[in-house]
Prior knowledge:
The chain has helices at 7-25, 38-71, 83-115. By secondary structure, it is mostly helical.
Amino acid sequence: MSTTTDPAQLVRDAAEAVREFNHLTFPRPDQTPALPYPGDAYDAIGALKTVAQRLPQAIEQIGTALDALASVGHLGSADGDDPNRLVACTQEFLITAMEQARGLAQCLDLAHSTTSTLTYSGPDDGPEDEPCGEGMCQCSCVGYLHPCGCDCPRCLYCQQLPDNCECDD
Length: 169
């Protein structure tokens, strides 16, 4: 969590994180894809969905701040326009942005749900002895059920790998 007291810097940091994501995931034929498995896409979509879900509140709070400044007469205009009119126009744009952000969040929610059932069926290029929880395996290995199809040896009681299990045999 950031310790900055500059709200605009937090939004700039979020924009930079998205830019870095875009650069990292840009498809390059000579490199391994940054999202090689459906679970990676699922996680990325889920994170973007969360960002989109939080945008309406952030946008609304910017509008509230402008309203507060206008109500106490602390706004001017560099080009001589009426600041109250400019705030009213800004509010209209912000309301539209909030509506579109909600629509974006809904679409990402649908995409997130849809990708939740996708599985990887390509070649297994990873090490043969990948422990559960790494690579494509994302199950918690509860009991005898391994939804991902792995066969990792887990203690039936504490669900730890044998090296970490402290249960009495």
